[in-house]
Here is the input.
Amino acid sequence: MGSFVPAAPDGPALLTDGIPKLAAPALVWFRDDRRMADNPALRAAIAAKVPVLCFFILDDGSPGLRPLGGAARWWLHGSLEKLAESLAGIGGELLLFEGPAEQWVSRIAAETGATAIYWNRRYGEGEIGIDSALKERLGADGVTVESFNGSLLHEPWEIKNQSGTPFRVFTPYSRTAMARPVPAPLPAPRTIPGGAWPADLRKASVSLSALRLEPGKPNWAKGLAETWTRGEAAARGRLGDFLDEHLAGYADKRERPGIDGSSRLSPYLRHGEISPRQVWHAVSAAMAENPSRATDGRKFLTELTWRDFCYQILYHQPDLATRSYSARFDAMPWSQGKSGLEPWQQGLTGYPIVDAGMRQLWQTGWMHNRIRMVVGSFLSKHLLIDWRDGEAWFWDTLVDADPANNAFNWQWVAGSGPDSAPFHRIFNPVTQGEKFDTDGAYVRRFVPELARLPDRFLHKPWDAPETQRADAGVGLGKTYPRPVVDHAAARARALDAFRIARGPVESGSDTAA
Here is the structure.
């Protein structure tokens, strides 16, 4: 394996000499925490001053677990590769296993003779069920089990309103959460006291390639590889670039899809290659050093807090990806034909800003946040297709497909979730394009067949005079599709459906959207 130079720790080395080679080992079960720095489970295992054995389990089949989508699996391959290199660089080793986690963890604990196992907590119902069962089983066998918060600023049960119940509205949640101190991130270890794996377990482990995480032929992930570098070092680099180049002006630039104005840290946070605590303190330090960045920094920290809020909602509604938070949406008369789903997935709706977003997603595994809202509104309101179909597509195609954020954000834009955008707020895709992609840089990049149209008509090519379309090489219905639905008609249909589901609509219009 290649060498790895870890981040310089800001504390003393965690390893002391003289650890008996035959001492019972401590186990570290890596999950969505594939990093060395600010990894409390890894830190605790090393602090035990016994040999440390590290492993990862790919569990796609246990009841209650949702298998990763294709883009997240692609990311996982590189993430595990970099994690293994990092561990090897300081004396550790990562073994990979595939199959039911409960069975593997029990077997690993028994065959290694481990007296302790450490992991960082997960918050999905299926994961909690597995972890709870293992804690009970291993504890009965005399194995100490310790779990930690390694992926959130604050855990889902920590932030409550004055009545002692979880917040359902983000603004008061964020006020409370952002007033709480965030623990400082832990330093990366300088060395790990690696232990010896039993021969039978080593033989039962699998190679990274055997997990079949990356596509074969055709290699649909080529664009992802050209866009992203996976791993902890890349995450630190991206954070540094964001602080140096993009934090100033973030509050405004984050809304412009045609420029690199967002942090693009979401996949690194989702896969645990950087922790939210690391990000929080780095941004806070940048704000303290340069007070002119306070507004932009606070806006970014609010976005980081939104991530925690999504996890609180998921924790209290485990079926967030499959059931509308608002039961009244069970009566929503979604379109049964779904004829618009495939054009939407392929970026062929005839609305340039929507198509640019869907093509960016397919090509890079990521989509700008503003455009996520636009394409989500278009699917659930213009096309009247169930938000769950969109959530499932994003789950499969996003490198940052997160079980809490993905589901909650889809419910937010559809109007079925807590504290959601009201259903009658229907984004006008032309207005959105003209407002946030004013110079057309975003559309021209991802919808190149429209690149030669003047800015005036770029977001509504059907309004361009036929001679101008001809000069630009645009043939509606030939080189670029006509709109799959008329905006005004689709809006009226959506509001009719909304009345069926929820009764009379409040007064409002989409003109500001």
In short: The longest helix spans residues 294-316. Strands lie at 26-30, 52-58, 94-98, 116-120, 144-148. The chain has a mean pLDDT of 93. Residues 152-185+230-318 form a domain with the Serine Threonine Protein Phosphatase 5, Tetratricopeptide repeat fold (CATH 1.25.40.80).
